[in-house]
Write a structure and sequence with these properties.
seven-stranded mixed β-sheet, alpha+beta, 161 residues
């Protein structure tokens, strides 16, 4: 019974971490997004086909927290793109396994894109394949593979998914 309760608490912590992640992208333009990751981290946006074939090709790729911060800084200071925002909708995380402080989970997602005109469209669907570092005080992403269902990704992929 204690193990079930501990698993539920862990799932709730992951759900909360994902809500913070989505809010940083959806409502804050990426501000605080990198804070969802451990210092030593990996982030990739790829297609299901690339993932299935073990290809590391990504539409976005970062292998450090510094690269994540640079991505957001570039969006605010250097890149020019049509103003838009996202709205993330996530399913329940499935905890695949736990190995000490590392927790591996898979979560389905949908992201709607809202253009400055108000037009809203389904932008991406897929799943997050995550590895979290879980301590008593924090839960941070060590690895997030964003595996998109479609091989066709709109070229307006500016913000991370």
């Amino acid at each position: 019974m204690r193990q079930v309760a501990a698993c539920e608490i862990l799932r709730e912590r992951i759900v909360h971490a994902q809500a913070v992640y989505a809010r940083s992208l959806d409502d804050n333009g990426g501000e605080g997004w990198a804070d969802c990751f451990a210092e030593d981290c990996f982030y990739i946006v790829t297609t299901a086909e690339n993932h299935q074939n073990g290809m590391m090709a990504g539409l976005m790729y970062a292998d450090s927290k510094g690269m994540l911060k640079d991505r957001i800084a570039a969006l605010k200071e250097a890149n020019i793109y049509e103003r838009h925002s996202y709205r993330h909708v996530m399913g329940q995380p499935l905890i695949a396994r736990r190995d000490g402080d590392l927790v591996y989970a898979e979560t389905p997602f949908m992201v709607a894109r809202v253009m400055r005109t108000g037009e809203t469209s389904l932008f991406a669907t897929g799943r997050y394949l995550d590895c979290y570092v879980v301590t008593q005080d924090s839960i941070l992403l060590q690895e997030r593979k964003v595996v998109c269902d479609s091989s066709r990704i709109d070229t307006l992929l500016a913000l991370p998914l």
